[in-house]
Amino acid sequence: MQGRRLLAVALTAAVALALLGGTAYWVRTAAGQGTGRGPQGLPGPHGGATGGTPAGVVKPPAAGAGTAGPAPAAGDPAAVPGASPAPGTGVPPAAGSGNPPTGGPGVPPAGGTGPSAGRDRPGDARDAGAGPVPAGPVFDLVIRGGLVVDGSGRPPYRADVGVRGDRIAAIGRLDGARARRVVDAAGRVVAPGFINAHSHTYEYVTSVPGGDADLLQGMTTVIGGVDGRSPIPLGPFLRRLERQGVGTNHALFAGHGSIRAAVMGTDRREPTGAELRAMARLLEQAMADGALGLSTGLEYVPGRYATTAEIVALARVIAPYGGIYSTHMRSEGDAVAQALAEALAVGREAGVAVDISHFKVVYQRNWDVQPQLIEQILAARAEGLTVVADVYPYRSPDYASALPLAQTWNRYPPGDLVIRHSRLPEVEGMTLAELAAARGTSPADAARWLLDRDPGAVATALVVGEDNLRQLLRQSFTIVSSDGGARSPSAARRDPRLHPRVYGAYPRVLARYVRETGVLGLEEAIHKMTGQPAAFFGLRNRGLIRVGMYADLVVFDPATVADRATWQEPAVPPEGIDLVVVNGRIAVEDGHRVPGVLAGRVLRGGRDALMAPAAGAGRD
To answer: What is the pLDDT of residue 361?
Structure first.
């Protein structure tokens, strides 16, 4: 009897340790919450000590584990020394923190294996001497034999992943485990579900809750309320999503433009003291309802009428909640340097973390400014200001993606002007320079020739430099976004101006910028899509493959994953995304949406993010 009691106590402790694994990390990231400063003492994906092996995880061999990767880049929060709060303190997650740890509960394997360790294959947690997990409680799902890229930025390893309910229950060799469903992931990558750092799906979700275009490219969580637009008040909208069900997890910012319009319409003036206080009250209520922070759209009405002082005053409202300032800056072109300086000033003066939305420098005449902007951000991070920039992998924003050729043929370099739509299908997809070369004429003559035959031809201007885009993707402070929104598939197919990012952004990173050009390593790209945004936005227990974390997972073929959406046919799903799991439920299987599965949840941010959810609240 006494032996049974001891065994029960041991098992209870092991389970508790596993479940605390994810929470412990998010508590550690809380150092600097609400101060605009990065986490203190986070080891990050490129270094630091690894922790123990939790219950349910077969410990891999430590010998020959190899290095943990390169040293942190300049300005990487992982490089900041200091102490972290102890688990169980009730400290909120560090919105705007940084990179996940290399070790700790729920983290196999210690140190990582693979090519960096001088081996000829990735580390294999299934090779551990501990042997298979004995038969025990049934898993709902086992993903067997995949290459686990866990979201931390560490080297991959081979392991089985067991899911029970909405959580990851075991990682390692699960040969003897019983499961209601087994998925063979041999030759596939198993990663955390992708987190879209800048999404417009919230604009369609009440009428189209499925989020098919997001799920089909591997997203399991989307961040909305961006560009200064959000439902106000926010609480009723979030409760409606919880009642109706959603395909992906949703977290929202409170939109400055929406708040301003609710108080003073579209007036082009500064607010009175009473109006500013009214805006602050609406914002504080939104934060209490679960907003991640404040977003601005400073190129749009009415946000463009706000002064820096107005924005700082409102950003100070979100600081006690650990809120984030997300900004579509006043300029991405000729005044981009001044716009970035303003964004960083808001973060410093209000004491909040900053996300530069869909960061880029547009128009060729401005491309040379980008290195200076990168230095500005790195300097701000070195000072202690937490800053990220989300980036999507396309050279044209929506406002340059469907332009009348008749008005644009002489405004852009002919090599950067793609013929998107024409009554002459043979010219679609060609640049104006390519058309001119094919006809043996000048670009001007080629444009006139085409417009004589098709006056309504539409072009896409590639206003972002390819080298600039690659440079941004490589930065330690950038995370991936799409800036797209999942509307109904039929509506998407009918929209000739639809941006291909709606269906292709994340597979495009994996295909073009990982496999084809090597701009990013696979684990680095996955980190920018999962662990890094989860840490920055304070999404507790998401973004990493750890025992006790939520089972948001994607399985894809690294040899074939690719975007198929083009400027000519933008509403085409990707290939190579085999399986997507949201909160433990399969939402995409064999590359197809599983009908009727609405497994997403509303993720509320702010100071209560580590607290237990209220009944029926769906809060993490």
So the answer is: 98
